[in-house]
Amino acid sequence: MNASADQGKRLLSAPSALLSVDLRAGERLHLWVGLIEEGAGLVTVSRDGNRIGDWRLGEPGVWTFIDIGTEEAGRLDIIAEGQPAEISAAYAFDPTRVMRDGVRLLHVHPRTAAPDVPDGYHFRQPFGWMNDPNGWSRFGGHFHLFYQHFPHIPRWNTMHWGHAVSDDMLRWRHLPVFLRPDPALFPVDDLSGGAYSGSAIATPDGLRAFFTERRAGREPEDQIQLTALSRDGWSAEPPRVVLPLRPDLPGLTKDFRDPYVFTGPDGRLKMLLGSRDALGGVVLLYETDDRAGVTGWRFRDVLHRQTRNPQSVCECPCMVRLGPDDWALIYGMLSSTDPATGRRNLSSVVLGSFDGQRLTPRHEQELDFGSDAYAFQAMPTEDGIVGIAWLSNWATVNKRQDNPTAMTLPRRMLLTDGILHTPPIDGVATLRRQMLDVEALAGGSAMPLPGGAAEIEITLTHPGAAMRLDLQHPDLPLGIEVSAEGIEILHDPPGEGRIRYLAAGAAPRTLRLFIDTGSIEVFADGGRWTGTKRIAGFAPVTSTRIAAGRENVAGLVAYGLGL
Fold first, then answer.
1. d(CA 376, CA 384)
2. Does residue 434 share a domain with residue 410?
3. Residue 355 and residue 461 share a domain
4. What three-state secondary structure class fits 189?
5. What b-and-e string marks burial along 394-413, b requiring 16 or more CB atoms within 10 Å of the CB?
6. CB-neighbour burial class of residue 445 (10 A; exposed 0-12, middle 13-18, buried 19+)
């Protein structure tokens, strides 16, 4: 069964061992293998010396996925024949216990390994790339977080869906990759699509995911909507198309993506999709009478239109009920710019009433003044609505460079006096490992932050009292300032240009800061103003100091954090 190479291509003088693993009884093995050089290649798998299968390898950049199960314990040897090959990632799991135990990582290529952040407490992928949260849901007694994922390098490419589950939305168990795109989309430099963002709902049959499949150059649509059912909560049945065409609307672009499915006030399933027309970004509304969400989807109307940034696409829409007649529509504005501050790709919240067909706005506000809480997705829980976002922004991510990122802390959505507040979930208090001595900080000296992971609570003498907190970071000036202009995250890396991460007009009395390697999150007055900023690299904040306005600080509490 050996594969012969094309004439003139170099063959290995002997088969090359890629990996040997000891599988436990009942475990499955998932791995991806790819060629390093052009030519013919074959990967074989043997169990205790007996060959059990082989797979021909595609061109370099096309990763062959291998799924092997075994009833009895034994050693598996993965061997490459022909041209040199490599494994990007491999893990094992017991299907009967994976929801409780997660996967067991066996091998990750150094090129795709996750950053070493031992004291970090934000969710990160186990390997490869991650962006938008997807399928944020509750099913089978667990919280599910799917996410946009590329397993093979820590940069955006052909999209998969990664997957993790949790009992508290803070401590996660990694599960098998949930959605894998057509291998024809794999060439590393193609960037042509895959399984784009979407949502998931619990149904009597299982957890049903909805997502956009993108194939560049496909006609008449390169973006269509699919659904896939998971009966066990971790594996997906073959997907099927639910929306093959865009609605026939004047000037609608081919942007047609990110299905968010929820139950409307009339009991019908609704689907939101993001797009753009000649006037600006639009959110499209569909509905179906099918409680499983598989058939009968029909276009109803443009639910919302934004014209402040005509060039921007509405994407990653999300809609949740906050009260009997109170709904929140959240969406990202790709390619938007705030002329006052220079911030890009803003996220907006529209608060109003929704009768199942029309959204009647009462108030609109910005989701996050730091702009690095993108693709926000929310779900109902026993404790109210909780959302999560990608802790980054396309404005500062280069798709041709490695950019390992994280998710924000989960946030509650509370409506107070007609304004949305987004404080962190109460469970973040369980991250506190130790109380830090704030005496030095109160006295104007630097307070060390062990491991660079901390929570700091500051109470000011009166709303809007001026104060500046400096955060010592080896690579850039960083801090938080309250002034007559509002609250600002001071973040000025070399070469970025002057961008102000400012909540204009904010006059908070309390600040709650969460500092981690690679990020800072600010929750002012219980989330009335929330700001998130990704910090490039993995150097931690080492200490903090009140640089100005110490006389306006009435209270200080600080904790070292960790999982």
1. 16
2. no
3. no
4. coil
5. bbbbeeeeebbbbbbbbbbb
6. exposed
Residue 141 and residue 67 share a domain: no
Residue 98 pLDDT class (50, 70, 90 cuts) = very high
Cα 21–chain centre separation? 31
Angstrom distances, CA of residue 1 to CA of 4, 33, 158: 9, 18, 31
Q: Provide the residue type at 479 as one letter.
A: G
Structure tokens at 125: 């992928």
Distance set, CA 452 to CA 117, 170, 516, 518, 538 (Å)? 10, 18, 6, 9, 10
Q: Which two tokens stand for residue 460?
A: 């000011």
417 CB-near residues (< 8 Å, 6+ apart): none
Answer yes or no: are the C-beta atoms of 60 and 38 closer than 8 Å.
Answer: yes
CB 541 within 8 A of CB 453: no
Q: Is the peptide bond before 220 cis (omega within 30 degrees of 0)?
A: yes
At 101, the amino acid letter reads D
Residue 99 to residues 72, 93, 141, 176: CA-CA distances in angstroms?
21, 10, 10, 10
Checking DSSP bridges between strand 206-215 and strand 193-203, what pairing results, if any? antiparallel
Residues 503, 542, single domain; the answer is yes
Provide the whole-model pTM. Answer: 0.94
Structure tokens at 371: 């702009």
Q: How many domains in the chain?
A: 3
Whether 158 and 185 have beta carbons less than 8 Å apart is answered as: yes
State the DSSP string of 315-371. EEEEEEEEETTEEEEEEEEET-B-TTT--BS-EEEEEEEE-SS-EEEEEEEES-TTS
Interatomic CA distance for residues 537 and 69, integer angstroms: 38
> Do residues 451 and 516 share a domain?
yes
Q: Residues for the chain: how many in total?
A: 563
Q: How far apart are CA 57 and CA 321, in angstroms?
A: 49
185 inside domain: yes
**Co-location of 318 and 259 in the same domain:** yes
CA distance 265 to 270: 10
d(CA 227, CA 262): 14
User: pLDDT tens, 247-306?
Assistant: 999 999 999 999 999 999 999 999 999 999 999 999 999 999 999 999 999 999 999 999
158 three-state secondary structure = coil
Q: Give the pLDDT of residue 187.
A: 57
For residue 352, give every residue at least 6 positions away whose Cβ sits within 8 Å of its Cβ, in sequence order, or none.
326, 327, 329, 359, 360, 361, 362, 363
Can you read off the two tokens belonging to residue 398?
């280069």
The torsion of the CA quartet 273, 275, 281, 287, rounded to 10 degrees, works out to: -30
C-alpha–C-alpha distance, residues 197 and 363, integer Å? 27
Structure tokens at 392: 């980054």
pLDDT of residue 354: 98
Domain range for 210: 128-395+404-421
CATH of the domain at 528: 2.60.120.560
373 and 431 inside one domain: no
Closest CA to 381 of 412, 353, 424, 356: 412
pLDDT above 80 (res 225):
yes
